[in-house]
C-alpha cells in the first residue's frame, strides 16, 4: 500500500457515492460504501497504480 488512511480523513462524494482521498498524481483514491460493506479496504486511484488501505469499522457499513 502507498499509505493507510482512516475513513474519517476521507471525503464523501454523494454524487458519485464514493469516499475519496487525494492521490499524489493529482487524481484521487476512491472506494464505495458497497465495497466497504463487503469488507474491501483497498481504495484505488483510477489514474495511476497507487492504492491505499482504508482503516474503518466494517460494522458501520453492514446494513448497506
Features:
64 residues; mainly beta; Microbial ribonuclease fold; 1 helix; DPH3/4-like
How would you characterize the overall build of this protein?
Helices cover 8% and strands 39% of the residues. By secondary structure, the chain is mainly beta. The chain has a single domain, classed as Microbial ribonuclease fold. A hairpin with a 5-residue loop joins strand 3 and strand 4. It is globular and about 35 Å long.
Summarize the structure.
With 64 residues, this protein is mainly β. It has one helix at 33-37, and strands at 3-6, 11-13, 18-22, 28-32, 42-44, 51-55.
Layout of helices and strands, plus pairs?
Layout: E1 3-6, E2 11-13, E3 18-22, E4 28-32, H1 33-37, E5 42-44, E6 51-55
What gyration radius follows from the Cα positions, in whole Å? Answer: 11 Å
Q: Unreliable runs, pLDDT <50, ≥5 residues?
A: none
Fraction of residues in helix: under 10%
Quote the beta fraction.
35-45%
CATH class: Alpha Beta
Indicate how many domains the architecture comprises: 1
In the CATH hierarchy, the architecture is Roll
Strand count, sense and barrel status of the largest sheet are: 3 strands, mixed
Mean pLDDT: 95
Shape: globular
Total count of strands: 6
Give the strand order, joined by hyphens, for the main sheet: 1-6-5
End-to-end C-alpha gap: 26 Å
| Class per helix and strand makeup | mainly beta
Number of helices: 1
The H-level CATH homologous superfamily, spelled out, is DPH Zinc finger
CATH topology category name:
Microbial ribonuclease fold
Strand/helix succession:
EEEEHEE
- How would you describe the oligomerization state of the chains in this entry? single chain
